[in-house]
Amino acid sequence: MTDKSFSDIPVDDLSREQAEVELARLALEIETHDARYHGEDAPLVSDSEYDALRRRNLAIEQRFQELIREDSPSRRVGYVALYKFDKITHSVPMLSLDNAFSDGDVREFANRIRRFLKLSPDSPLELTAEPKIDGLSLSIRYENGKLVSAATRGDGTVGEDVTENARTISDIPNVLGGDNIPNVVEVRGEVYMTHKAFTDLNKRMEDEGKPTYVNPRNTAAGSLRQLDSAITAQRPLKFFAYAWGEVSYLPADTQIGVVEAFRIWGFETNPLMKVFSDVSVLIAHYHAIEEERAGLGYDIDGVVYKVNDLALQERLGFVSRFPRWAIAHKFPAEKAWTILNGIDIQVGRTGALTPVARLEPVTVGGVVVTNATLHNEDYVRGIGNNGEPIRDGKDLRIGDHVMIQRAGDVIPQILDVDLEKREPSSKPYQFPVRCPACGSHAVREVNAKTGKTDSVRRCTGGLICPAQAIEQLKHLVSRGALDIDGLGDKQVDGFYRDGRIADAADIFTLRERDERSLKKLKDADGWGSTSAAKLFDAIDAVRSADMYRFIYGLGIRHVGEQTAKDLARTYGSMEAFTEAMKNLDDMMVYSDLIAVDGIGETVASALREFFGEERNLDVYERLLEQVDPTPPEQTSSDSPVAGKTIVFTGSLEQMTRDEAKAMAERLGAKVSGSVSAKTDLLVAGPGAGSKLKRAAELGVDTLDEDGWFKLIGR
Ligand code: IVH
Question: Residues 212, 236: one domain?
Fold first, then answer.
């Protein structure tokens, strides 16, 4: 097979060697097309053929992450701009909103409308008010109640076809519910991500050693524009419906009435939307929303007012790109200038040295800000390890005047430096090369495969580093891991400082040692007999926590929650897991490990490194003496779906997607997000689209929900 390419082999069936050859071919081919596309030559392939190449490249990279090439098309700058989704022309353009910045602007907006409609200045005028969600707008088309397409705003006239990705968002129904559904309706609204989902996702990315995202809006946009809808499905995106495009008939004659119909059809609509007939009360509502803003759990950047009466909207019409009947009342920009007083270095759980800006306190959007994230060494220096300037890098110096921005709950960022105010004597910041917590060398690792230097400098001290040890303990007791009630970051800090807990095993001997000790916990600052007893009980309660929680809690690099679950399911018991982990130098054991779905060389070598370290093994074994982890529920091997790969698609009516997945996994099946040659069974609810088609092409067995329940004997 030497000079034959492997381009006909489905991604799921490629061997590692074949994948390597394919990635090389794709890199070259895509580069050639890019050059022709940007140069004067006519493109050699159609947009969809080009897209297919990129999608295949990405799919292979997802399966074989260790094979990602230095010159991979997915790494190339301009990649996002280059990638082309299919285009959808909006049947009704997606417009933008004019802005109001003051209460006066809002009064003028209402007066303008009255003048245009020739209403007297004191005649009643109903306006709706609702939060302006800081996400990205999406137009979803339904024909006969079924979702047929979804498009981003794009330039307002032509957007990108993100239909498959939109189908994975649970706030967006695949089939409209209720009666009186128009034959054609385009429901429009905002895709967004909650603060919690954003921080959880970033934590997961960090655990898996992947780059983190900057803010919820960019993350939502990036997640919706994924080439693989299985990735979008893993991102908890949400959607509020607030507007419409083409409709064959409208279910109400007011703005609020139509939005109410959206809710009945199965959409989420914003609970803060209200109708007002007095501008002063409307403005009071704006200020009330502004007050509530920080507690909403998602980012908003203003309040949108719309004329409630649709007949009046029609009369008012549009001025250029804006409707005359709506306006966005923006919140004051959450930006401010302040002084960079210092740069602190925090040491994380895996030894990462993270610079944090200490700022002269300044009020931004009603909150006093004293620090800002500085990401990493290169960001602070403004140059990469290769000496080249980096995008967004700042060359920040202590004493600089910096502009900071606060967005929602997210930690503030530095946007700009005022170079004119810089002290001539200031010096570039010298990033420490020793760990500030333990003095060990701090190094930037070079990836053996790519030859690239890591952007993160890490302390090499491991568990002798107190900062790493504390962070490690905090991780072990945190929510995704053991989740010990009453043992949070603050308590861990205190216990580490007073010597009660030095490592994971100590947590579980706390009660026993306390009983023998003269310095009892109940007498310590901030504790009493009830809280101490409660804590000991909470610790006892997690001795039998699920096995994956212990594995995840070990805080091994690249082992996130999902990987921990994969490991628990693979080995089935803590004993078997331990046995394998201690023998990862044995090639048989090691290759069994990387054969596990979802585990590649990166995870396997991180495990080998962790368990190869004497000190880790010692803490691990002492921990295991104290606990009795619960193995994963045994999957029945005699079920009709054991060992099969199943895909669920369309809207399921008798179970949620999560329930369906859990049920199938309990029965020993593997659940996948996309249909391929490896799929054994597709369970399709109403509204199933391309996956059903693909399954038919591949001859994959397909069942509806009833058929599924029959098959599994329920
Ligand atoms: S109404 C024709 N309502 O703001 C009017 N827009 O600056 C259509 N947005 O592109 C828009 N929340 O992405 C409307 N409650 C809301 C909104 C909202 C966020 C976004 C939308 C639009 C942009 C205009």
Answer: yes
Give catalytic status of residue 132 as yes or no.
yes
Higher pLDDT among residues 383 and 560, named by residue: 560
For the segment 273-293, what is each residue's pLDDT rounded down to a tens digit?
A: 999 999 999 999 999 999 888
Radius of gyration of the chain (CA): 28
Whole-angstrom distance, CA of residue 59 vs CA of residue 26:
12
**Active-site option among 132, 306, 394, 474:** 132
Q: How far is the CA of 509 from the centre of ligand 1 (A)?
A: 56
Predicted local distance difference test score (pLDDT) of residue 135: 92
**Does residue 185 sit in the same domain as residue 242?**
yes
Please report, in angstroms and rounded to a whole number, the separation of the first and last CA atoms in the chain.
48
4 part of a folded domain: no
Is residue 38 in some structural domain?
A: yes
CB of 620 within 6 A of ligand 1: the answer is no
Ligand 1 center–CA 587 separation, angstroms: 57
Domain termination site, one of 624, 655, 688: 624
Cβ 130 under 6 angstroms from ligand 1: yes
pLDDT in tens, 482-515: 999 999 999 999 999 999 999 999 999 999 999 9
Helix-then-strand count for the chain, H and E: 26, 24
Residues 17 and 41 both lie in one domain? yes
Domain stops at, among 330, 351, 376: 330
Q: Tell me whether residue 637 is in a domain.
A: no
- Ligand 1 neighbour 221 (Cβ under 6 A): no
Q: How far is the CA of 413 from the centre of ligand 1 (A)?
A: 25
Please tell me if the CB atom of residue 243 comes closer than 6 angstroms to any atom of ligand 1: yes
CATH, residue 133: 3.30.470.30
**Whether residue 590 is found in the same domain as residue 564:** yes
Whole-number Å distance, alpha carbon 288 to ligand 1 midpoint, is 20
CB-based burial label for 299 (10 Å; 0-12, 13-18, 19+) = buried
Mean residue pLDDT of the chain comes to 88
Predicted confidence at residue 464, as pLDDT, reads 86
pLDDT of 41: 44
pTM for the model stands at 0.53
- Closest C-alpha among 84, 298, 272, 301 to residue 191: 298
- Range of weakest confidence among 397-401, 581-585, 689-693: 689-693
How much helix, strand and coil, in percent to the nearest 5, is found in the chain?
40, 20, 40
Q: How many domains does the chain have?
A: 5
Residues 472 and 535 in one domain: yes
- Domain of residue 533 covers 465-507+509-541
- Structure token digits, residue 415: 């946007």
Of ligand 1's listed atoms, the one at least distance from the Cα of 95 is 2
Ligand 1: residue of 98, 304, 310, 321 to mutate (most ligand atoms within 8 A of CB) is 304
131 and 277 share one domain: yes
For ligand 1, atom 22, which residue shows the shortest CA distance?
A: 96
Query: What is the identity of the amino acid at 144?
Result: N
Of ligand 1's listed atoms, the one at least distance from the Cα of 273 is 15
